[in-house]
Amino acid sequence: MKHVSATLFALAGFWIWPAFQGAPGRVRPPEAVTCPRNNLTLYAGRVTALDRGKDVTTLTIATDWQTTERVSVPHPESPDPDKSFLIKGKPLAAADWEAIAPKGTLREGMRANVWVCSEPKGAIVDFYFP
After folding, report:
1. d(Cα 81, Cα 79) in Å, to the nearest integer?
2. I want to staple 113 with a disulfide (CB 3.0 to 4.6 A). Which of 3, 23, 32, 126 is the partner?
3. Whether the Cβ atoms of residue 100 and residue 86 lie closer than 8 Å to each other
4. What is the pTM of this model?
């Protein structure tokens, strides 16, 4: 009887385990994100579009949860719009934009964690390479 129970338990785990594999877990926000955790949403995934404008930067993300999200990061007349952007958790320098979008074209496979705060409104984008 012990062997039958152990076999059934092992088979149940065999069938259930794939449902949990590959599901993203909790991700800790970088220190630059000061938003209260209850007001914070994370969009993590592959950046499929990037439009850097004078007053706003817009990204489209194919998320790891199979959704497509579009996020706008406003920076009207900001002397340093890069303060809303990180690269691998560290502050983004102006020269880093060339690594993200060489000659203005988004680097293939570029990924990002976009931390969106509902109150106070804002977003921090943390780019990383695959």
Report:
1. 6
2. 126
3. no
4. 0.76
Q: Cα separation of 101 and 107, whole Å?
A: 5
* Token output for 68: 């497509």
Burial (CB count <10 Å: 0-12, 13-18, 19+), residue 14? exposed
Q: Do the Cβ atoms of 123 and 30 come closer than 8 Å?
A: no
Let me know if residue 1 belongs to a domain: no
Q: Is residue 89 assigned to a domain?
A: yes
CATH of the domain at 88: 2.40.50.100
- Please enumerate in sequence order all residues whose Cβ is within 8 A of that of 111, keeping only pairs 6 or more positions apart, or say none: 44, 45, 46, 47, 127, 128, 129, 130
Is 120 inside any structural domain? yes
pLDDT by residue (tens digit) across 47-71? Answer: 999 998 888 999 999 999 999 999 9
